[in-house]
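User: quick one, fold this
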Amino acid sequence: MGTQKVKVGLVGLGNIGKTHISNMMTLEQIELVGVCDLIQEKADRFAAECGTKAYYNHLDLMDQSGLEAVIIAVPHYSHPSIIVDAFERGIHVLCEKPLAVHVNDAKLAIDAYTRTQKKFPELVFGLMFQERTLPFYKKIKEIVGSGELGQLTRVTWINTDWFRSQAYYDSGDWRATWAGEGGGILTNQCPHNLDFYQWVFGIPARISGHAHIGKYHRIEVEDEVTAYFEHDNGMIGHFIVTTAESPGVNRLEIVGENGRLVYENNKLRINRNRISMLKHLQETSQGFGNVESTVEEIEVNTDAASGHKVVTEKFIHKILTGEGELIAEGTEGIRSVTIANGIMLSSFTKQMVEVPFDSNQYESLLQELISTSEFQKSPSKAIKTDMTQSFSK
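Assistant:
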């Protein structure tokens, strides 16, 4: 008896599209029935290499290839409309991050899924948040979720390991423009980090954002961001990111009443307090004495399978069996978009925003930025690109 296969189509043959193709070629349960790109030469070339059919319009791919599922790997603005078109046809969707550029578009995609689910209850909607599969991040989620740290008081994430050159930004005419991409580091590099933040700690109740537009690069979007979060449980968060720091750092500190967890340089260390810090500060008679604590390095199995392929395998398995959990449900994608939009809305209005905020206000602001943009890109320049360098920061 042969392996049961899912007929899959791929929309978007840029850098990340190539990653999806190489993964799909190794998965026995996928039959690639078509590839699609607006650039016909590119679609033809990949189709020939993969022994499949080329399409130049995603609707033709959906209507003519016989696909059951689609992987979407196009520039961000197009994600929601292609998702909606797929769901209207009862097609399973695995979409690259982010779900959308702004909250209103994310809602459109989720609403389409909800409507279609009534007709096709088995419809699968996944998002490519592959960083949830990374061994260290999985372990952090596990430790925080266990309650070992007790009441959380502070999370500080300095994630500046995203260095990008001017040549990178010049390599695609859609990159780093309000009209083409809809944002900078928060929209392109950091959806994974914002997703991880909400996955572990939830969405902040209040956001104060400070975004610098084209501070170090000739771009019209943000390349340096500092954000401050407040949560209803009393925890505060700091989120500090830029594409203009080298050497960069990825340091995550999670502080609770029972200790501190620190991730940096592929090491995870925990300081465990002998008693609760909150209890100690109320009861101790000493003015300055710290809580006694011990430090331990947490062992993490870094050989465990992770990355895009794991996300795709879970997606295909759910379609075939109706069982198992996706790495990230598509409906969860609105959460990281909410945080990103909240940061930018706060920065532009120069005031702290309450979550949920007025998503129409942010969309209007974005439309204004698009319409008043005077940034003119020079013709795209090819760069040497190894996409694996951009993952897992």
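User: anything notable?
Assistant: The chain has twelve helices and 15 strands.
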